[in-house]
Amino acid sequence: MNVLVLGAGQLARMMSLSSKNLDIHVTAYDVGSEKVIDPVTFLTVDQSLQQAIDSADAITAEFEHIPLDILKLCDESGKFYPGTEAIATGGDRAKEKALLDAAKVACAPYKIITEKQHLLDSIDELAMPLVIKTCQAGYDGKGQWRVKSLDDVEQIWAEMSEFLAKDASHQIIAEKMIPFDREVSIIGVRSKNGETAIYPLTENQHTNGVLTLSIAGKEKNAIQAQAESAFTAIANALEYVGVLAIEFFDVDGTLLVNEIAPRVHNSGHWTQQGCHVSQFENHMRAVTGLPLGSTVLNRPTAMINVLGQAAIPKAVLAVADTTSHWYGKSAKPGRKMGHINVSADSLSELGDKLADLAKVLPEQDYPGVQATAEQLK
Length: 377
Ligand code: ATP
Ligand code: MG
Ligand code: MG
Fold this sequence. Notes:
Layout lengths: L1 E5 L3 H10 L5 E6 L4 E3 L6 E2 L3 H7 L2 E4 L6 H9 L7 H7 L2 H10 L7 E4 L2 H11 L3 E5 L9 E4 L5 H14 L5 E5 L5 E9 L5 E3 L3 E6 L2 E7 L4 H17 L4 E10 L2 E8 L9 H4 L4 H10 L12 E7 L14 E5 L9 E8 L3 H14 L8 H8 L1
Parallel strand pairs: 1-2, 1-5
Antiparallel strand pairs: 2-3, 3-4, 6-9, 7-8, 7-9, 10-11, 10-12, 10-14, 12-13, 13-16, 14-15, 16-18, 17-18
Helix pairs in contact: 1-10, 11-12
């Protein structure tokens, strides 16, 4: 079978690698260069987007900020999963919040802003500190501001109005800053006939808005159940097909949704070693109509993102049960270049292995690894 992925980055690459043994062949459409490529070799495939659509058995996407005309073209083919509505919802925070409200899933109190008075109203209604985010663009914490005092308003409004002026459809959202204990996410998959399979909850650490460390295998049943019911409500509301990720704030054992991602997600990369069937393979199974695979955790597993480095730090491979996943991209400061997964038979053994990794990874480049190792040991 042939699958076309919109977007040609590491997620398309890992979807391709994960499904070779299912005899699924992946091509990727790079929206920026408008080229169809093989996302593993990066070689150009001599096809137009329309030809790639015509020759695909299924079409999917690795990111949510895709021009509407391309989404519509794919939808017309009748083989696009999870489809335009789900992808557009994940790519627009205003649509996303409306979906959460309709599905009765709790999120941070918010207000949509299109003019300066709305910003002032949001300060009255929600109370500072606020997190302000662009609704239509933004990833890895880009397109965000923090309002901590009234002195911040002029400067932030100047930058916000620049974004609003770019396109009449642009909106901004103010959210109450949530004093969370930690961040977690759930990754699950829904098939064409509405079956779901959900992975164990993942605990995530972000540094400057970018995910740096994920851990799976330490969660209690009650919190897993909360996350699963949010997943099911959202996936069913969207009649979703494929892998869907939901990020949450954990506030004293209660989960509030931060955002959803209508795709495979960085906080699910640990499933490549932690489970029999990874999020990438399960996504490909769902969109091609194959039976879903197991989402049961085999062993506690952690994932560490490698940011900005030109090569995989070799010493990590000497630590037992460690694997490297490299994306083959050119290095830029802070760019996601690859990731490391490490598994263990118990959480304390995972702590020992993270401590071994922390010895060979410089703390400034891999914040949180040492501290997390100590907590788990
Ligand atoms: P991603 O790469 O995950 O798509 P993004 O740019 O869409 O990132 P968010 O996930 O919305 O951004 O926010 C990035 C981080 O900022 C969050 O993981 C969280 O640490 C912090 N953050 C966002 N919104 C809030 C909030 N309302 N209260 C507290 N912290 C927040
Ligand atoms: Mg996001
Ligand atoms: Mg996020």
